[in-house]
Amino acid sequence: MGLGDKISNKAQEAAGKAKETLGDATNNEKLQAEGAGDQAAAKAKQAGEHVKDAAKDVFGK
């Protein structure tokens, strides 16, 4: 995984956490759900990148 991808994914995850926290504080269920969704998407991207990295290690490509 490239450094740019790592930074982008972590930024998306942090923004999602901020949205979720703000939604909790304001009792805004839509914002809470959006934040949770952003975090889940970022984590899924990170997992996919880890799989690609592992495959490169195994197959040497």
TrEMBL record:
Residues 33-45 have a biased composition (Low complexity). Residues 46-61 have a biased composition (Basic and acidic residues). Residues 5-57 form the CsbD-like domain. It comes from the Bacteria. Residues 1-61 are annotated as: Disordered. InterPro entries: CsbD, YjbJ_sf. Belongs to the UPF0337 (CsbD) family. This is CsbD family protein.
